[in-house]
Amino acid sequence: MRPNTLTGYRHSLKPVIEALGGIGLQHLRTADIDALVTVRLSGTPITQRDKRGRRAAEVLTFLRERAEGAQYNEILAALGEPGIKSLDRLVASGGVVRIGRGRYVAVEPSDPQRPRVPGSVSPRTVVTMLVVLSSALDDAMREGLVSRNVARMVKRPTVEHHEMRSWTPEQASQFRHHVRDDRLNACWLLTLAGLRRSEILGLRWSDVDFDAGTVSVAQGRVVVEGRGTVTGDPKSKRSRRALPMPVDVLMALRTFRLRQAQERLAIGSQYPDTGLVAVNAAGSPIRPETYSSQFAQHAKDAGVPVIRLHDVRHTAATMLLDGGTTPSATAKWLGHDPAITLRVYGHVYDDALAAAGDALMGRSRITGEQKR
């Protein structure tokens, strides 16, 4: 699993663990998750449940009822061996202290303040939480830990659809013309070709085959929380692909490789040997946030809408589908699942299908009238 994926899972499940972590897995109910969903959406924070279990709560209650504490034998007589085991764990964690020979007292207040689960989050955040939780419970079912996945019975909130932003072919051409003399022109052309930022920043010269005219995606460079920029495998198995590049992209890459050779010669032995394509004039790898900020500045200077770097992939996908490329070929080019490609960019393909249907009936999509 990629580090960023793991971080995302932990972030999504944090409110689940904080609010429901004290419930035994087999005792988790749909109503418990429903209540958490309501809290997350309503904005009313929820007090976290004590995660130490029922036995620990019994020991703490027993001790709090006795201001002077209780003797070991009293606890054993009242709560048995399970109570003593919980007592030992509470002593180890600091929830109970031994104040004398065999005498124990609880050090927590009777109404402890626990961390709170925040509310007023977006429906999309809640849906993501439910998707990850449901996936975890599916794993639990396969391992025989639970008999059913109660998260699948929770009604998911409606997520408002936001139309993705992209450039028109004319705007993409305008941006391409603006960056033609930029040092990173080859990288910007790869961005316009639909490669992810991580794929461009992880591209090595050994991945560029000028004889075959291909660029292979074999690794990526991403920012991982707490670890900085990390080089690793591509985003998914489908992301690992070899793409036949247009002549102008290959020419830009040749020009950039020659420029890097000149920069290496000027700096000498101090020039880092990273083997990466996307490096600065001193040979150091370009940071992801730097690449994004430079892209935004170029878009502004080019006089085109300043969209997210990732939205350029939407532009590439739209242009491919609108140009007649099949959904499966478009998905392979982008390193996507074909089903995802159709779901995300289906409106473009639907337009093409509608045009085909109208052509069969002798109608023009341009005029909307039947040809006479």
Automatic annotation (TrEMBL):
The keyword Transcription regulation does not apply. Keywords: DNA recombination, DNA-binding. Transmembrane segments: none annotated. InterPro entries: DNA_brk_join_enz, Integrase-like_cat_sf, Integrase_catalytic, Integrase_recombinase_N, Tyrosine_recombinase_XerCD. Residues 162-358 form the Tyr recombinase domain. It holds the Pfam family Phage_integrase. This is Site-specific integrase. It comes from Mycolicibacterium gadium.
